[in-house]
Each structure stands twice: as C-alpha cells, then as structure tokens.
Amino acid sequence: MKTEASEPKPTATPPRRSRAAWPLLTATAILLTSVLLVGFVVRARAAAQLRATAAEASAPEVGVIIAQPSAAARELILPSTTESWQRTAVRPRATGYVKGFSVDIGAHVKAGEVLAEIETPDLDQEFRAAESAVREADANAGVARLNADRYGKLLDQKAVSKQEVDERQATFKAAEARQYTAQANLQRLRELREFQRVTAPFAGVITARRAEPGNLVSANNPADAGLFTLEQVDRLRVFASVPQNESRGIQIGQTAELLLREFPGESFPGKVVRTAGAIDPVTRTLRVEVEVPNPDRKLVAGSYAQVRFQIVPTAPALLVPVSAVMFRSAAATVAVVGEGNVVQLRTVQLGRDLGTQLEIASGLQAGDRVVRNPNDTIRPGAKVQVSAPADGTAKGK
C-alpha cells in the first residue's frame, strides 16, 4: 500500500495592505500630538498675554521727569548795606572856641584842606609862658656853664677844691636838663597850636557837621562826636553774609554785582577783596567783603542793596520738583521708575530749596526717571504705566 508523504501546510502571512499601514498610523499619531502641543502652547501664550494685558491695564499711570544736573554756575543774591571805604569823626586836637567853618555837609574836600579854625586863648597863654620859661632856662644854663668853666680853671691853679668843681658841674647839668624840658614843652605847645586849623585827614565828602561858630570844643572829651564826619566814597565796601553751604563757592578775587532798587535793570561791578575766614557760629554764615568802585559817586554810602554772586559748585546737584519728594519716617524719599516700569523708592539727601524745585545732593543719578507726583499708596516693586514721556522739566535753569 503506497503511502503518500504529507505535504507541509502553508504558513499564514499578513496581508501586504496591513503591513504598509503602520507607518501611516505612526505619522498620523505624531501629527496629531504635534497639533495638540502647538494648540496648547498657543493657548498658554494667549492666556499669559491676556493676563499681562490685564495686569498692565490695572497698573496705575504716573507722570515722570528726568533728573538732570543743575547749571554749572548759579546766582546767589544776598542782602547787604553799602559803606564808605573810609569813615572818621574829625575831632578837635586843641581846646578852644570855634572861630568859623570853611566847609559844610556835602562838600568834597582834599587831604590837608582846612575845614575849620579854633581860637585857643588858654593855649596861647600857655605858649607865651613856655617861651618865658625857655628864656629863663637858657639864662640859668648859661650862668651854670660859666661857673663850671671858671671853677675848672681855678682847680688847675689849686685855688678851689675838687668837690667845689664837681658841685658846679652838677649844677650846670641840672640847668641843662631844665633847659631841655622847657624847650620840649614849648615845642609841644607850638605843635598843638597848629591844630587851631582843623584839616581833612584824607580826601572825601563831609557827611555831618556838629558844631556852630562860638561853641566851646575840647580836645580831651571822649564823648565828643567830633566837628565833622568825613567819608571816602569814591569806592565802597559792601558786606554780605554767605550761608555755610554756599561758602565754598566764594573765592577772593571773584567778581560780584551790586543791585539797588533805585537803579532798576542796572548793576554795578565789584570784587571780593576779603572774607572773615571763619563761619559765624551763631548765624552759620561767612562774612564777605566786596569792593565796588564809585568814581562818579553815583552810589550813596549807607544804602540798602543786594549782592549777586556767581556760584560754581564743585559737584552740581540734581533738580526735581518739590512735588516729587516724599517724607517717610523722617527721611526724604523719591519714587524712581526703573527697568520694566517697576517702581523703586530711594532715600535722598536734600540740598537747597529753590521754591518750585529742590536740589538732590545724593541718592539720585542723572537720567533717572522720577515720579512727578507720587501718592502714599505707591510701593517699591509695583509696576506702573508711564503716562507721559520723560522731558527736561527737572533741568536746572
């Protein structure tokens, strides 16, 4: 019986169409995942943008200014009073009666010019007595000299003793001393009589006369205000008290200007000639003297005036409006808008108060954006909207 060998059964293979579909399914899945991720990212970004827009819309609006340094030089105007360059009371040197005046108030006189004459009857009598005393002293000295010489010759002849010669020599020396004293007194009275003519010690103007002809004047009366007041007014002294914080800007030799109300729109040049060199501990000011030429005598001594200085600061300060400064915990503070419009609060040191503006000595830098009118609710780290572009309103004049 013939046996047929069993044939192997064919193995089942997947259809070609199913094997080719796997890559397509994979790509489709990747594409769908990418679409979902992109959609998620877009929605997240949109939500973040919406949140940022909402936050920005809720941020308060503030106006800012740019902090800029003040001008390199600034004016300092201080009150003062004009004073004559020299001023003196012309007093009598001789006691007597006023004979007459050669000048009166308002007269311009030269140095050495006669101002008044004084009659001195008592002085004249003293002078005559002194002349007599000199003649008597001269005679006594002459006799004493003759005696001394005579006794000296007798001593050579051994007719007198040495003691007698010494006595005559002593008598002669005493007579010489009295002669010198009498002559010195006469010279003193002679010079004193020269003061019968009262003269001007320097060129100037007579600003006061305090006696009349016939008045008795005394040379040794400390309460006497004098016959005249004489002032030199071809140049004036002007004194000003400079505040301590401005004293470093004043230098000897720098120019200044004198301003008076009676000369509107006009100024008179001057120069700083000296300073006190020390701060007054009571007023905290530096006394400064300014010399102002007055050759035409247009200015009058004793007038109220103002002195204008040009102050050049060593480190120019920054200027901000008064409204920009807050006072918190007894410290001056300003609000600065930094990067990202985020608020920063900075403590500053104030300088001068210029009315509508304040100087900031430290705590700010040039170019900082300072909130013009901060309110009490502003806090550091808060985000704000800048409602107006920064301008130069804080720039110094």
Please summarize what this structure is:
Among the domains are: 61-72 and 316-388, conserved putative lor/sdh protein from methanococcus maripaludis s2 fold; 92-199, Helix hairpin bin (Helix Hairpins); 234-311, Efflux pump adaptor protein, beta barrel domain (Elongation Factor Tu (Ef-tu), domain 3).
Fold and architecture overview:
The protein is of the alpha+beta class and 397 residues long. Among the domains are: 61-72 and 316-388, conserved putative lor/sdh protein from methanococcus maripaludis s2 fold, CATH 2.40.420.20; 92-199, Helix Hairpins (Orthogonal Bundle); 234-311, Efflux pump adaptor protein, beta barrel domain (Elongation Factor Tu (Ef-tu), domain 3, Beta Barrel), CATH 2.40.30. The chain has four helices and 22 strands. It has helices at 16-20, 22-58, 121-156, 162-193; strands at 61-66, 68-69, 74-90, 96-101, 108-109, 114-119, 197-199, 204-209, 216-217, 228-243, 255-259, 267-279, 285-293, 304-311, 318-321, 325-328, 331-337, 343-347, 349-353, 357-362, 369-371, 385-388. The strands form four sheets. Strands 1, 16, 17, 18, 21 and 22 form a six-stranded mixed beta sheet that branches. The protein has a six-stranded antiparallel barrel with strand order 3-10-13-12-11-14. Strands 2-15-20-19 form a four-stranded antiparallel beta sheet, with no helix packed on it. A hairpin with a 2-residue loop joins strand 16 (325-328) and strand 17 (331-337). Helix 3 (121-156) packs antiparallel against helix 4 (162-193). It is elongated. It starts with 15 loop residues before the first helix and ends in a 9-residue tail after the last strand. Mean pLDDT is 83; it is low at 1-6 and 390-397.
